[in-house]
Amino acid sequence: MNHQDLINACRQDWDAYTQHAFVQQLAKGTLAQPCYLHYLKQDFLFLKQYARAYALAIYKAHTLADMRKALPSVNALLDSEISHHVSYCANWGLTESDLEAEDEDFGTVAYTRYVLDAGMKGDIVDLYAALAPCSIGYAEIGRNLSADENTQLQGNPFVDWITLYAGDEFQQSVAQGTAHIDTLLAEIDLDSQRGRNLITVFRTATRMEIAFWQQGLDAFSKDEI
Ligand SMILES: Cc1ncc(CN)c(N)n1
To answer: In which pathway does it act (predicted)?
Structure first.
């Protein structure tokens, strides 16, 4: 099996994730600012836990080769993606320590601890099945938005978000990570119990992504700014 089998096995949830109303409003530039800010703050906290999960992949690896494969993702999260969020949030006068002091919302706790638990109780492949919707999904969203002529780039307050995830650096790092996941999945039969378990893990993380977008949209009524 490979990553595409995982996506195909949960197609409905996958499409609900990658085409969520939050994504469509980002693309049109119509997303309410409180929703974006809530999402960014929570995503900062999400990425911090997510970096721990990639560090767990080093711990779970049996070979030096697999340990080295996980390291670029830890670096990319800590040096690039989290730093982008810190700079975006500086526009609202928020510092890195302000962001670290934020409370995690329920969807943030549920998703990140689910990924960490899948990796703790399973092996490295279970962990990657839980991590994969995050990287592969955002890369797909970035590509879709940049290829779609209806995406509003000019004057769009969220253009930085779109260019981050559509950009070469993010796309290449996800392509490398996905090739590694495919190598690990290649030994597993899609119709085996193991294959079905991995689909469940991948689908659960995909459903968590949908809930994470919704958590951002639901912030509309909260007084965030
Ligand atoms: C919730 C979520 N999922 C995925 C990504 C992309 N790394 C992200 N920043 N946030």
So the answer is: Cofactor biosynthesis; thiamine diphosphate biosynthesis
Tell me which residue of 210, 204, 133 sits closest to 174, measured CA to CA.
133
* Angstrom distance (rounded) from CA 142 to CA 136: 10
Would you state the structure tokens that stand for residue 61, as one six-digit string? 């690896």
ipTM reported for the complex surpasses 0.90: yes
CATH for the stretch 3-221: 1.20.910.10
Of 21-35, 108-122, 162-176, 209-223, the least confident: 209-223
How crowded is the C-beta side of 12, counted as CA atoms within 13 Å?
0
Task: Calculate how far, in angstroms, residue 123's C-alpha sits from the geometric centre of ligand 1.
Answer: 22
Cβ contact 52:78 at 8 Å: no
Q: Give yes or no for residue 74 having a pLDDT over 50.
A: yes
Mean of pLDDT over the chain: 96
Return the domain boundaries, the chain. Answer: 3-221
Residue 105, sorted as left (phi over 0), alpha (psi -120 to 50) or beta, turns out to be beta
Q: How far is the CA of 133 from the centre of ligand 1 (A)?
A: 9
Nearest atom, ligand 1, residue 165 CA: 6
Distance CA(114)–CA(125), nearest Å, equals: 15
- Measure the CA–CA gap between 216 and 35, rounded to whole angstroms: 5
3-class secondary-structure state, position 184: helix
CA of residue 125 to ligand 1 center, whole Å:
19
